[in-house]
Write a structure and sequence with these properties.
This protein has 369 residues and is of the alpha/beta class. Helix 5 packs across helix 6 and helix 6 runs antiparallel to helix 7. Helix content is 51%, strand content 12%. Strands 3-4-2-5-1-6-7-8 form an eight-stranded mixed β-sheet, sandwiched between helices. It contains eleven helices and eight strands.
Length: 369
């Protein structure tokens, strides 16, 4: 796919390349905790919904935030997002019951066993997230799936899960080939006590073989840059820069495509005004922004602004998402137009406060009646 470049020959500072690549099926959004992954993943899903037939956003973070971001309660079943006709959301349950095991294709003959031990398996939340991936790859009712992932460590385990599971299943199937005859003999010996003993073993091994094929398919799709990409989200600070570099290096080991970085919570110099604190933060951020540009000159780097209010609700996400496809340009600071501009801004704020006081007084009078 041809990269989007601007007039200077640099990669465009937008995620338009993700929207333009119609072959993409899996889009992971991840990074360090607290950098705004959920806001960015929801914003990307909103933009994708405008150009794709149907989009599903899945939260694989045990501490789900999709419901808070959209101001709508979601569950482990896909639900239509309010205000959209083709955008769906769901939150993976990290505490599975028996029905959750259906995603692994072992509900018959092995589901109860897996369900019994599931609560004691380390990393079961990643396993259940992967089970949801496999459900979707088998049905693929959506033209594109966006993953709002957990912090970096959990995400890397999730992405490593297909390869690890594939290796384990290969060993299991090799054991079947080595000991198949013995298993059949034992099954026939147990036949009178266990109805359909041999059939149960064959059925279970058949399910394992079916699971192996699905895992191989998912693994192949994850490594196909025409189908899968990873969008890294970070903030212009040292720890986030370090974590992003680690994440990109690990993604390269997994052969997963990553060519977009979203730098969130950026303070632009035009918005500093007379604040010494903001000026100091801009100076600190600029140092790390320069490092990002030096390290990732072959990436699309998108800068998202730090806002005065939280981005919550479909309307706010729609407005914020525009910054993913059009570079953000801060409005002129009120003080930049001289003393008259500053005076006008102060007068506007005073007028707003007076109006607010009048509204509160009216509410108080109504309450007394």
């Amino acid at each position: 796919m041809a990269a989007c470049v601007d007039a200077d020959g640099l990669l465009e500072p937008t995620l338009q390349n993700v929207l333009d690549q119609q072959t993409l099926k899996w889009i992971f959004v991840g990074g360090k905790g607290g950098v705004g992954k959920t806001t960015c993943s929801c914003s990307l899903a909103v933009q994708l919904a405008a150009v794709r037939e149907s989009v599903l956003i899945i939260s694989t973070d045990p501490a789900h935030n999709l419901s808070d971001a959209f101001r709508q309660k979601f569950s482990k079943a896909p639900s239509l997002v309010s205000g959209f006709t083709n955008l769906y959301a769901m939150e993976v349950d990290p505490n599975p019951d028996l029905s959750e095991v259906e995603g692994l294709g072992l509900e018959d003959g092995g589901g109860s066993f897996l369900a019994d031990i599931s609560t004691s398996i380390p990393g079961i939340d990643e396993a259940m997230s992967f089970a949801e991936v496999m459900k979707q790859v088998q049905s693929m009712d959506y033209s594109c799936i966006v993953f709002d992932t957990a912090p970096t460590g959990h995400t890397l385990r999730l992405l490593q899960f297909p390869s690890t599971l594939e290796k384990g299943l290969n060993k299991l199937m090799s054991l079947k080939e080595s000991f198949g005859g013995m298993v059949s003999q034992v099954s026939r010996m147990l036949g009178p006590q266990v109805p359909g003993g041999e059939d149960v073993v064959d059925s279970l091994l058949g399910k394992v073989d079916q699971l192996k094929r699905v895992v191989e398919e998912v693994n192949a799709q994850f490594k196909n840059d025409e189908l899968t990409t990873f969008v890294c989200v970070c903030i212009p600070e040292f720890l986030s820069l370090y974590e992003t570099e680690r994440l990109i290096q690990e993604l390269a080991k997994f052969e997963i495509d990553s060519r977009n970085i979203v730098i969130n919570q950026v303070i632009f110099p035009e918005e500093v005004g007379t604040s010494r604190l903001l000026a100091a933060r801009v100076h600190m951020q600029q140092k790390y922004l320069d490092q990002f540009y030096d390290l990732y000159e072959d990436f699309h780097i998108v800068k998202m602004p730090l806002l005065e209010e939280e981005v919550r609700g479909p309307e706010a996400l729609q407005a914020f998402s525009e910054n993913l496809v059009r570079p953000y340009h801060p409005p002129p600071h009120p003080a930049s137009g001289g003393s008259n501009s500053l005076l006008e801004e102060l007068q506007r704020q005073v007028a707003q406060q007076v109006q607010r006081i009048a509204e509160l007084e009216a509410q108080l009078a109504a309450a007394k009646r």
